[in-house]
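F.,

This is the one I mentioned.
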């Protein structure tokens, strides 16, 4: 089922004393986008991306520590 929102086109919205919105132009229906839903697939994709990024940083750090150890032995 499609959902819609009510927008005020060609004008500005004011609120009367009773709390009702008033539009100086015309009211129009506009299709609303679906809300963002976090599901298990999105969580899995984010965790995989985080693990890959963490793995890249960790591997470079471990290689630099090893390279530093080799250089200190050659010194």
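My design for it:
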């Amino acid at each position: 089922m499609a959902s819609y929102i009510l927008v005020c086109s060609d004008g500005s919205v004011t609120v009367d004393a009773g709390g009702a919105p008033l539009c100086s132009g015309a009211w129009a229906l506009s299709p609303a986008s679906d809300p963002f839903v976090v599901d298990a697939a999105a969580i899995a994709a984010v965790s995989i991306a985080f693990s890959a990024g963490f793995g890249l940083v960790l591997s470079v750090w471990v290689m630099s520590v090893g390279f530093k150890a080799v250089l200190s032995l050659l010194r």
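Residues 1-34 form one domain.

Talk soon.
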